[in-house]
Amino acid sequence: VLALLTVFSSSSCGLDIRPSNKPVRIPPGETVDDTLVVAAESVTVDGTVTGDLIAFVRQVTIRGAVKGNVISFARQIDVEGTVEGSIIGFGQSLETRGQVGRNVYAFGQSADIARGGRVGENVAIFASESDIEGTIGKDAYARVGSMNLSESARINGALTARVNRAENVRIAPGAAIGRTDIRTARPARSR
Q: Which ranges of the chain does DSSP label H, i.e. alpha helix?
């Protein structure tokens, strides 16, 4: 854990470590002027975290702002507010309806960019399923069981998808994608 904090934390901020067996909440109007490390039932950010948010919880909810990165090991990660850096999320589900300034790296059962959600740069998804309805500023890479892109989906760069069957990627008419590269996974050779 200490190595993770050293690698990902902004050097300009201190650490605010909050272990708890109860939910941790940063209410509207409150500012945590450090990197916030939470080991608890859940964390909800309705205020502002000026550094990174590192969370070992069941649920992360961001309705306020995180000025740095979000690194989370959680069952569910919901971003309705703003993350100015990147999100690295390990969990059952990750959904962003908010704004992510840089990148999203999602590892889990489902990873979704909802309508109105915006990722400024790249997205990498390793999940069973993914729905893209929002905007990705650059490229999207997905290694998924299935992927749906709605008519509101916008990927300004390339969509690279690796799936078991090509029909597992559904792109709605009206979705705007710079270019696509959809390939099926090759079965391992038997010896």
A: 2-8
pLDDT in tens, 4-23: 444 444 444 578 888 788 99
**Three-state SS at 29:** coil
- What are 32's two structure tokens? 């945590």
Percent of the chain with pLDDT over 70: 90
Q: How many CB atoms lie within 10 A of CB 165?
A: 10
What's the pTM? 0.88
Q: What's the burial of 118, exposed, middle or buried (CB within 10 Å: 0-12/13-18/19+)? A: middle
Question: Which residues lie across from 65 on neighbouring strands?
Answer: 48, 82
139, 142, 133: which is closest to 164 by C-alpha? 142
Distance (Å) of CA 153 to CA 76, 87, 169, 175, 177: 22, 20, 13, 5, 8
**What amino acid occupies position 21?**
N
Please list the residues that pair with 25 across neighbouring strands: 44
Helices and strands (H and E) in the chain: how many: 1, 22
